[in-house]
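User: I'm designing a mutation panel for CoA transferase subunit A and want to avoid disrupting the core. Could you give me a predicted structure to guide residue selection? Please restate the sequence first so the numbering is unambiguous.

Assistant: Good idea. Sequence first, for numbering, then the predicted structure tokens:
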Amino acid sequence: MLTMYTDAAEALAGTLTDGMTLAVGGFGLSGIPADLIDAVRDSGVTGLTVASNNMGIDGEGLGVLIEAGQVAKVIASYVGENRLFAEQYLAGRLEVEFTPQGTLAERLRAGGAGIPAFYTKTGVGTLVAEGKPHEMFDGELYVRERGIVADVALVHAHTADTAGNLVYRYTARNFNPIVATAGRITVAEAEHVVPAGELDPNHIVTPGVYVQRLVQATDRVKHIEQTTTRPRPQAEQRQDQHRQTQQRQTQPSAVAG
């Protein structure tokens, strides 16, 4: 049964405990449940295990939980954008379970589907597979990976209805749909909340049956980890015209004799 809340702290009330496992949607800073992450920080819970694609950047996203010293273990596929995360890992203060990105996605999907474990060729013969059971299938060696079931899953959606159905926008969809299924309790924040029945059933990605708590997200800046752009043709043309004008202005005037 879905319950609507007025803010992120209220939506998480009674769900957070020391030493729990959180699954968090998003990819770096894209599609992250920023309000809910801040509410976890403000709650003061510690010893967290966080399963997410990565831990954001210093001072943003899941990076705020690293800075607050609330995370004991991370299950992730990438750490390169968060300097403090890397420093704590290298210093032995933070346990990290590296998982190939596709394997991490499948572990979350499996957990949400009630599949306790599965076999994959990814990682066989590497440090990722050390200590894990192996099995031969059709003459090929596979490693067994466990599904991930989190105590609480945190997700961000673009639009939700009051029945808990969720729609995501563009790349912000990323890990959110599989994380939404992997929590014993799933708490969603949504930029827009509409009455039940207004969403086109064909556009719903996460059915409301997976979502227990919902809060409307605050209007906040959506940060970008790295911006890589190229000038548009019109901009390039304007730049050329500007350079030509500057060159004419700096050339010495001809003196008539």
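For picking mutation sites, this is relevant: Residues 19 and 47 are 4 Å apart (CA to CA). The first strand starts at residue 3 and ends at 5.
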